[in-house]
Design brief:
Layout lengths: L1 H16 L11 H6 L3 H11 L7 H8 L1 H8 L8 H7 L9 H23 L14 E2 L19 E2 L1 H27 L3 H13 L10 H12 L7 H9 L2 H6 L13 H10 L9 H10 L3 E3 L8 E3 L9 E3 L2 E3 L6 H11 L2 H15 L6 H13 L4 H9 L2 H4 L11 H11 L3 E2 L3 H9 L23 H15 L6 E2 L11 H10 L5 H9 L7 H9 L2 H4 L2
Antiparallel strand pairs: 1-2, 3-4, 5-6, 7-8
């Protein structure tokens, strides 16, 4: 009990420190480029990836910062065998939506129709009705949930059970894969960018009945384009079933216009709220995308253009006239226009600079990144390179200027402790409890990218509780060996050295010293390090 009270007292001191972490004023970009110190490398690892592991600092020092950044900008050159091995148990990761629909969804629909017809007397009963049903009490979904009743309050069709079980497994393994990639992948920048762009083009999993559509959205639409041309990424998103369904564009047709996608395309995906467009532009963009649909969405047929549903009259978008009597070219030209618009260059540059540098990114950096975007026709690799090699990123003021999101915090804590994540469910549950359930952000804005979105006092205490549980071996499915690399008693100091470069404020050191003593275990002190203001920030 005394140790627990000490932890609570320390937590108050540490949480207060989040308002203003001490920053090391010694590092400058020229020195970092020539012979980077540990603090500079830790800072880069926190921005380019999900934090430092034991040995990472020495590896980057040996390679050099410029070479390391260039390597990360070309993830296809980085072997990732450890991650590949860890992803093997996730059997649904190669699932395709069309096969899933044929094998799981359509049989369920047919079984429902047959059962309804039998009950209505329109179809002779083949088997006794009771033989076709399974009591809900006898089945359990992954994670312990019960399926919703398809027939009555106490029974479920076998096909219904099979569909729900497989569907939920796809989502759970998608979440598990995201966490495992963040913790174990050597391609750290790629994983950060996949997270960034999925959030930028957010789709809410709760609205997508067939979860393989979500899987394909990240795997086949977002991931292959994060370091390519923005126009290619934008076009892939526009034609993805996930986005077509989420923002209702698959229902938009001449005479029955739906403006949801057109509005978010300009406000959230490209130009920004102050990007210079009008409501008239929104309407005409919506008209340009009529007919962008799916012919058989329940069969996961993918994108299709329906010429009969398209508004073929003349349109005017951002001062440009789209001639009458055209088809899919209208939408393609709109994507060309907005992808190359100066407002889009600035909006994307601002969001990327906010992710990598500061909540309020330096205007000069945004200007340079936007110019790179314009000069390279939206080459995202070069825009990111401009930001990652900028003096603003390595400026002392940028150190720990960003508060980790719940996902970033949990991933970085698992990396810092060298945890073996065997079953990710408990860690994923923590991320959700902290306010960031993966793939389940309802609004199209995505999760917040500023500290104000995550600064609630209760959430910070919950973070500390997770840190204490992780270090104490009380997070299910995650094994932590504090003696790895030395003795358990040395673990707190080791983590301070390689994940924080021994850069702690006086108040944090005093708080940690106050938790020492015969009852202060290595697990308690390690948990307090992970809950420290310096670790909560990146």
């Amino acid at each position: 009990m005394r140790a627990r009270r000490a932890a609570v007292a320390v937590a108050a001191v540490l949480a207060a420190g989040l308002a203003g972490c001490a920053r090391n004023p010694r590092s400058t970009l020229p020195r970092a480029a020539r012979r980077p110190d540990a603090a500079t490398i830790v800072h880069l690892l926190n921005r380019l990836g999900y934090g430092a592991r034991s040995g990472d600092v020495a590896r980057v020092q040996h390679l050099g910062i410029v070479a390391f950044i260039d390597q990360q900008l070309h993830p296809e050159t980085i072997p990732d065998p450890d991650l590949d091995w860890r992803l093997q148990p996730l059997t649904t990761r190669t699932t395709d939506a069309r096969t899933f629909a044929a094998r799981c969804y359509l049989p369920m629909v047919a079984a429902r129709a047959e059962m309804a017809a039998q009950r209505a007397g329109r179809l002779p009963a083949g088997k006794p009705l009771r033989a076709l049903l399974t009591p809900i009490a006898a089945v359990t979904l992954p994670g312990g949930d019960r399926p919703a009743a398809a027939i009555g309050q106490n029974e479920v069709l076998p096909e219904e059970w099979s569909f729900q079980r497989r569907n939920q497994q796809v989502l759970q393994e998608l979440q598990a894969g995201k966490l495992l990639r963040a913790v174990y992948s050597e391609r750290q920048l790629q994983e950060v960018l996949v997270d960034f762009w999925f959030n930028h083009f957010n789709v809410f999993a709760g609205k997508i009945d067939d979860k393989p559509v979500m899987l394909e959205y990240e795997r086949d639409v977002i991931r292959p384009h994060v370091l390519g041309r923005f126009r290619d990424l934008l076009g892939a998103v526009a034609k993805s079933p996930a986005m077509l369904f989420y923002l209702d564009n698959w229902l938009s047709r001449a005479g029955r216009l739906n403006e949801n996608y057109a509005r978010e395309l300009m406000e959230l995906h490209t130009l920004g709220v102050d990007g210079g467009y009008t409501q008239r532009d929104v309407v005409d963009v919506a008209r340009a995308f009529t007919g962008w649909t799916m012919r058989k969405p329940r069969e996961a047929s993918g994108f299709a253009f329906d010429d009969k549903a398209h508004d073929r009259t003349q349109k005017r978008v951002l001062g440009q006239t789209l001639k009458a009597a055209r088809g899919i070219e209208d939408g393609e030209e709109v994507l060309d226009l907005i992808a190359r618009h100066p407002s889009t260059a600035r909006f994307i540059a601002t969001k990327l600079a906010r992710r990598f540098v500061a909540d309020d990114p330096p205007p000069a950096l945004v200007d340079r990144a936007a110019r790179t975007f314009g000069k390279t026709d939206g080459d995202l690799r070069e825009v990111v390179r401009t930001i990652l090699t900028s003096p603003e990123l390595f400026d002392p003021a940028a150190r720990r200027a960003k508060l980790k999101t719940p996902f970033e915090f949990v991933a970085s804590a698992l990396r810092a402790t060298g945890a073996e994540v065997v079953v990710p469910n408990a860690a994923l549950g923590t991320i959700a409890a902290l306010g960031e359930p993966l793939y389940q952000c309802l609004p199209p804005t995505g999760y917040g990218d500023r500290a104000t979105a995550w600064m609630a006092t209760g959430a910070l205490i919950d973070r500390l509780n997770f840190a204490l549980a992780l270090a104490g071996g009380r997070v299910g499915g995650a094994r932590v060996n504090l003696a790895l690399g030395g003795t358990a008693d040395e673990a707190p100091d080791r983590i301070i050295m390689f994940s924080l470069a021994d850069d702690l404020s006086v108040s944090t050191r005093q708080a940690l010293a106050g938790a020492s003593g015969p009852r202060a275990t290595a697990a308690l002190r390690t948990g307090l390090v992970l809950g420290a203001p310096e670790f909560q920030r990146r």
